[in-house]
Amino acid sequence: MTGASAPVPTAGVAMTALGVALIRARETARPDRLYADPLAEVFLSAARPGFDAGRWAGLERLAEQYFEGRTLAVEVVDEHVRESIAAGCRQVVLLGAGLDTRAFRLDLPPDIAFFEVDLPELFDFKEPVLGAHRAHPVCSRRIVAADLCGDWERVLLERGFRADVPTAWVDEGVLGYVPRAASYTVVETATRLSAPGSRFGIGRFQVDAAAPQYRALRELVLEVPEGRPVNGLGPDGESWFAAHGWRTTFRAWDELIAPYGRPSGLRGDPAVGHVVAVRE
Ligand SMILES: C[S@@+](CC[C@H](N)C(=O)[O-])C[C@H]1O[C@@H](n2cnc3c(N)ncnc32)[C@H](O)[C@@H]1O
């Protein structure tokens, strides 16, 4: 199998995963790259023939507009995963994993159970491409093909997730697509499944719904140029964690990315950054 026959997500929310793959491929091609994700280009090569030229160009334009901040965020999440494992987490759960390849590209211990949760149509594309490329994960990777608005917990447990083992949870751009009430159900479920010492990484940022790139994203993916869906945890996410048995620590975005010497992609707002919640 070449992978070219994998059904390409050319519409809907699963398509956003290709936008982030474009960003990681672009980073990988830089001589001063922050990380290397060679599989990103493999996914793109398999996906490109499924798109008409105009739609693909629209996706590329969007990836370019979001590049500066989003590529740094990949590195910030890489660090969150490394720190969580160094602190004793033996499981990782990527919520809305998309075309992420941390289970292949990070230097993770082989005994780490690495769960990727995403929609079935995403894995219908991802798995054949990985298989055709004979990609081998460095740890115990397990896919959880399920909707986060549904019973993803059951599928996660069926795949061997253990609620008595500390877990590193990652939301890297998925809850922004999940309605607010369902987003809180997701974190309630994660809280119930989190042994002491588990860690949850949460982005704290402001979305400027009027910004041209945000409008372009809505048009391309959601096909709704007007109006802003009420998704994600919103401004109360961090305090929700603090009130539900998690100790939270905030680091400002500008401080987090200063060592990389790159433009931040954000406006230098000291309230924007990354929160790590540790289960007590
Ligand atoms: C912007 S992409 C981010 C992907 C990945 N975290 C990354 O950074 O490369 C959002 C991902 O969330 C997934 N997603 C959106 N809504 C979802 C839902 N209700 N259940 C599961 N996955 C969902 C999409 O399929 C997509 O892969």
Give a written overview of the molecule.
The protein is of the alpha/beta class. The protein has one domain (about 15-280): Rossmann fold, CATH 3.40.50.150. Helices cover about 40% and strands about 15% of the residues. It contains ten helices and seven strands. It has helices at about 15-30, 40-45, 55-85, 100-105, 120-130, 150-160, 180-190, 210-220, 235-245, 255, and strands at about 90-95, 115-120, 140-145, 165-170, 200-205, 245-250, 275-280. α7 (about 180-190) links the parallel β4 and β5 (about 200-205). α1 (about 15-30) crosses α2 and α3 (about 55-85) crosses α8 (about 210-220). The chain is globular. The model has no long low-confidence stretch (mean pLDDT about 90). Bound molecules: S-adenosylmethionine. The site of S-adenosylmethionine has 21 residues, from α1. S-adenosylmethionine binds near residues 97, 118, 172, 173 and 178. InterPro entries: Ppm1/Ppm2/Tcmp, SAM-dependent_MTases_sf, SAM_mthyl_Trfase_ML2640-like. Belongs to the UPF0677 family. Keywords: Methyltransferase, S-adenosyl-L-methionine, Transferase. One of its GO terms (biological process) is methylation. Exhibits S-adenosyl-L-methionine-dependent methyltransferase activity.
Secondary-structure blueprint of this entry?
Layout lengths: L15 H13 L9 H10 L5 H34 L4 E5 L6 H4 L7 E6 L1 H13 L7 E6 L6 H7 L8 E5 L8 H13 L6 E6 L7 H11 L14 H7 L2 E7 H5 L15 E7 L1
Parallel strand pairs: 1-2, 1-4, 2-3, 4-5
Antiparallel strand pairs: 5-7, 6-7
Helix pairs in contact: 1-2, 1-3, 3-8
Bound molecules: S-adenosylmethionine.
S-adenosylmethionine binds next to helix 1.
